[in-house]
Amino acid sequence: MTVEKFTWISLVSGCFKSQEKASPPLPKPKKEICKQSSCQRISLTDLSNPSSLSEDLSISLAGSNIHVFTLAELKIITQSFSSCNFLGEGGFGPVHKGFIDDKLRPGLEAQPVAVKLLDLEGLQGHREWLTEVIFLGQLRHPHLVKLIGYCCEDDHRLLVYEYMPRGSLENQLFTRYSATLPWSSRMKIALGAAKGLAFLHESEKPVIYRDFKASNILLDSDYTPKLSDFGLAKDGPEGSDTHVSTRVMGTQGYAAPEYVMTGHLTSRSDVYSFGVVLLELLTGRRSVDKSRPQREQNLVEWARPMLNEPRKLGRIMDPRLEGQYSETGARKAAALAYQCLSHRPKQRPTMSTVVKILEPLKDFVDIPFGTFVYTVPNETDNPKEDVKECNDSKKDVSKENGHHHQKHPLHHGHRRHHHKSAARSPTIHSETDLGQNQRTGSMSPLHPEAKGA
């Protein structure tokens, strides 16, 4: 993949043309094409003076994989942002599902997409939109959501992503009537998300995600996780710097305590947030839940002391799993979450270490399976006795909620459980998608007055 240095500078230049005064024309820079491994990735700090560049936007994006859409095209794609295509709304703005026809433009295959429209009065603004384009426009990984294109027309700011059929992890894990996520899927999601973070942290120019949470992990049809929403991402420290100083932004319950206290941001801040999400996967509980008893409202404070206690681990495991999980895998995952949630950042593992620990857990098979027992009657059995037993069973009825339930003459075996389990929720699949943020702990600054980063 090639990267052209002037591409993103020209992008910003095109977006600000109507807002900045004209500058004396500069000689057109030569196109510098180089391999990504040897080129420095462009960041927001490289775009401090966009008015000094006049390279045409359409020319600057030649050879790029990112498409520039017009507002008219996006209206066609989303059927004029029809309410029937509405998927959700978050800090950025509303999200609509759309479909790109193969006739829309050459080289762009037909596919469903998710289109995010910036709400000018929302919590995020042009800077977050630009951050998203810069990071996802240059970073490619199987566990990062794919940015297909954008629209920067007058005051309109839109982003076009690949469509993720199963929506966010938050919706799959916490929606009341969604099907229970099985243990194997939870471990697959944890591993994939960890690989995405490890890729960001170990890039030639490291990236700190800063807003890792269940609602920002999107799921493909096969539960492959992909990180989305890079509006709060920051370039990591360089040289001898140990951290990045910034205003505290993120979501309560996920942010690392030292970052909240000091504003010092490091990759270990992301590791803490990963520990919170891993804990959510284990317990089926939200990071912050005001509906629970006072001592259980903060998930980390309540659960962390029990993570290293095998005998107590069963108390915090998600009851909707009904005991169908690997006990060995659960202990190892719990111990990992304990390390990630350490109050001392240096004692937290790196994300590459997290990946190595999680890798074998997806293959653990010591899961108790439910059994169904059917006893075949013996040919020598007395038919008269069978009739008598059947008649006796009909007389044996019990009242429940004012109704009579007849006991079935056949004997069924029962599932084996490690602990008391809650009843399964109805299996109802609802279509959710990218950026749906109607939730507790939506993307917003931890402190309302902190509007920038």
UniProtKB/TrEMBL annotation:
Subcellular location: Cell membrane
GO term, biological process aspect, one: defense response
EC number per UniProt: 2.7.11.1
Gene Ontology CC annotation, any one: plasma membrane
One family name in Pfam for this protein: PK_Tyr_Ser-Thr
Principal location class: membrane
Keywords recorded for this protein, A-Z: ATP-binding, Cell membrane, Kinase, Membrane, Nucleotide-binding, Plant defense, Serine/threonine-protein kinase, Transferase
Comp. bias regions, Basic residues: 404-422
Biased composition (Polar residues): 427-443
Gene3D superfamilies: Phosphorylase Kinase, domain 1, Transferase(Phosphotransferase) domain 1
Principal EC category: transferase
Lineage top rank: taxon: Eukaryota
PANTHER family for the chain: OS01G0588500 PROTEIN-RELATED
Name recorded for this polypeptide: non-specific serine/threonine protein kinase
